[in-house]
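Students often ask why we bother encoding 3D structure as a string. The short answer is that it lets us treat folding as translation between two languages. Here is a chain of 79 residues written in the first language.
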Amino acid sequence: MIKVDLSTALFWYLLLSVVLVLVAWVFFNFGIGLKTFSSEEKYIWHCSICGHTYIDSRHDEISKCPRCGTYIEKQPLSP
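And here it is in the second language, the structure alphabet:
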């Protein structure tokens, strides 16, 4: 069995914690991390019947609402 006093164990615990935080910061801060989702306004649809807002990148002029099944024409989003 390996004997380790309290101060050495605490040192290694804190060192590993700081290294993990540093690696996570580098990973997420410098673009190596997860890809972010970005949607263009032309893919965002809003159903005037049920009020559902959804993304449909396959259709340009007419789309079918996934919630209520209504066919809707493309209209600009109102803020």
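Translate back mentally: DSSP finds one helix and four strands in the chain. Keep this in mind for the problem set.
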